[in-house]
Design goal:
It contains nine helices and eight strands. The protein is α/β, with parallel strands linked by helices.
């Protein structure tokens, strides 16, 4: 089937930290010529703003005021989806461990989630869209055409994250990464507002023993099955 004949879909990809959600989402978006939105990057950008501006996340008034001054957008730079915070390229900064250590707490704040969900829904437009995160298939786009829920063994996820940080020359150790992922999983799944959970109609993909290309192949087989 010619890609121009494919009806635009909204594809939601949810799952745990360091499961390769964004990698899969980027692959699908590229294959289908869809817009890709990394919702996790949006929460990381907000977290970075809070850190850089010494915002006490337990002070509701300061959080609400700070959100008025935050704008998160994406640009494709040399084929790479890049995150901008108030027009500044922050793609590298938001991937740091200091942001990772606080992003789940920031993401659990209702005011933050409301603003990000509104921004995310406005990004859909009339084009095909692939978005990954924690609550895309349950809250942001509950009527998404296709939903995936990604998981993997926690130790495998930690090793992948550790390798990623090492490749970026960020100093850390595996035990610290494991602790961080356990902490994030607990907050993500237990928070009151939009907790991480599998949508009833989502396809479960456990990629513990999959490499990137194997996961992509499985996902595309399902997507083309729906399209056809």
């Amino acid at each position: 089937m010619d890609k121009k004949d494919i009806q635009p879909l909204i594809i939601a990809i949810d799952g745990y930290s360091s499961c390769g959600k964004s990698t899969l989402a980027k692959q699908i978006a590229k294959e289908l010529h869809y817009v890709f939105v990394d919702s996790g990057a949006m929460y990381r950008a907000v977290t970075l703003y809070f850190i850089e501006n010494d915002i006490n996340i337990e002070d509701e008034n300061k959080v609400l005021d700070a959100l008025k001054h935050i704008d998160v957008t994406f640009k494709n730079i040399n084929g790479v989806n890049t995150t901008f915070l108030n027009r500044k390229n922050v793609e590298t900064e938001i991937r740091s461990l200091k942001v990772s250590q606080l992003v789940s707490e920031v993401s659990a704040i209702s005011a933050v989630r409301k603003k990000m969900v509104a921004l995310q829904r406005n990004m859909s437009g009339s084009q095909g869209l692939v978005m990954d995160g924690r609550d895309i298939g349950t809250v942001v786009f509950p009527n998404a055409d296709i939903k995936f829920f990604i998981t993997a063994d926690p130790i495998v996820r930690a090793q992948r994250r550790f390798n990623e940080l090492v490749a970026k020359n960020q100093k850390t150790d595996l035990h610290e990464v494991i602790s961080n992922l356990e902490h994030r999983d607990k907050i993500d799944t237990e928070r009151e507002d939009s907790p991480l959970k599998k949508a009833d109609d989502a396809i479960l993909l456990d990629n513990t023993h999959f490499d990137i290309e194997q996961q992509f192949k499985v996902a595309m087989q399902y997507i083309y099955g729906v399209i056809h």
